[in-house]
Amino acid sequence: MKLTKKSITILSFTLGACLFVSTAFADTLLGSGYDRLKGSAKNTAAKMEKGLNNYTVEALFTFKDNGKTVLQATTINKIDTEKQASENSTVNQGPDGKTTSNYSYTDKKLSVWKNGTDNKYYVTEFSNDANRAERNRFTSPFNDKGAPEIEKLFDALVGNLKDYVQIEERADGAKVYSGSLSEAQVPAVVNAVSSFGFKRMISDHGRMEKDASLPEIESDIFVKKVLGTAVENKAGIVENVTGDVTLSGKDKNGVQHDLTLNAVFKLSDIGATKITIPDLTGTNVEKVSQSGGLSSKYVGKYRNNIIIEKNGKFVKIGERTLEITNVANDKVTGKYSETVNPGFESDYPDKYNFNFEYNPNDTKPMSTFTYSNAKGEQENGRINPSGSAKIYLDLHLEIMGKDSYRSNSGPYYDGEFNRIFE
To answer: Where does the secretion signal sit in this chain (predicted)?
Structure first.
């Protein structure tokens, strides 16, 4: 699946928001039935990986500032574990009401994607489909690297909040978990973690999205209200999860903001989900190689500015240069370098300068390349197109599992590069 920078930003934001919500009001969805529902969540994830032939997952995220919608993201993902096929549609809405959409279809032999900024379908045909089953399947996050440690931290944070939930057992064998927390019921440690997580989330979003309209909350951040429900069917599968969390805080001008995140998840059409190859007859189609969507037209130099915040202002202190030297035989080679203006060396001490070779492999769930950082240590990176004459370069990646990773880029790293036309 190909993601534009815009959708990557929204995805990163919503995933960060979900992590934040989970930390801030862990027990709202779990409560005194914490262990029971956690076990059900693990069982559901395991069944989604292997056990359910096909299903549909829907998710809706809405973020509001003082009642005004700032961001909204909707996604519908259809998965067929038998055919090893999936179909994904997403719609992202900004504060101006404008929407962007993305679509993708993938199976063992074919990948199709289309984003809202380009009226074109990009199609990749895979010559070796023997091992692509691993790439097209859902994998349980509970099996990711580091998952047990995160679970222990989560358990410790929940603490005595387990007493604030109600569990209703229905006549048909289903269970409904519901609960709420008020400002007075939220422990200080949760508020402290929430404050840190929220500031980081807003900072990351603002850095990645130049037209970000999220308020810069700087002080007095606390969890004001939490509501949540989860529905587990008689088979022990979690079908619906809904959560609302409201935070309050002041921006740099002392203006009070109530920020509300609503998240809704739904697992449906188990055994009845139908996925069909999209009919591209009469549409604008471009075939691309397996080189991460890159072709020979991307050969050339790309650049962006190194910008930091200093003394309350944004200051350009240098430049990053990315050069794609060759794209052939499903292999991408290139160079990357950073230059810092005189007088700013202490603000950006670890400059990067390396060559790389990227070999996307369709038999693996995820492809990366390796490079040496400023200290000579090996790190991982990824590269992909990001709109017309643009490239997005992910560096400082930590591999979490066989098909997931986490970016550890610093606060001043910008991964989008624009083509230099000389």
So the answer is: 1-26
The CB-side HSE value for 6 (13 A sphere, CA atoms) comes to 19
Report d(CA 1, CA 365) in Å as an integer.
Answer: 11
- Asked if residues 243 and 230 have their Cβ atoms less than 8 Å apart, the reply is no
The residue-averaged pLDDT of 311-330 equals 88
pLDDT digits (tens, 9 = 90+) for 53-90: 899 999 998 988 888 888 888 999 999 988 888 999 99
Closest CA relative to residue 361, chosen from 155, 127, 43, 88? 127
CA of residue 390 relative to chain centroid, distance = 20
What is d(CA 269, CA 189) in angstroms, rounded to the nearest whole number?
40
Q: How confident is the model at residue 192 (pLDDT cuts 50, 70, 90)?
A: low
Distance of CA 370 to CAs 34, 51, 69, 389, Å?
A: 41, 35, 40, 24
Q: How many CB atoms lie within 10 A of CB 178?
A: 17
User: What is the pTM for the complete model shown?
Assistant: 0.64
- Rounded CA gap, 73 and 100, in Å? 10
Is the pLDDT reported for residue 114 higher than 90? no
Whether pLDDT at 21 is above 60: no
Q: Do 293 and 384 contact (CB within 8 A), yes or no?
A: yes
For tokens 């997005």, name the residue: 392
Place of tokens 């395991």: 46
Instruction: Kindly state the average pLDDT of the residues 12-34.
Output: 44
Positions of E strands within 131-284:
165-169, 175-182, 217-232, 238-251, 256-268
Whether 265 and 59 have beta carbons less than 8 Å apart is answered as yes
Q: Bridge-partner residues for 241, per DSSP?
A: 230, 265
pLDDT in the model for residue 188:
58
Report the distance separating Cα 337 and Cα 322, nearest Å.
7
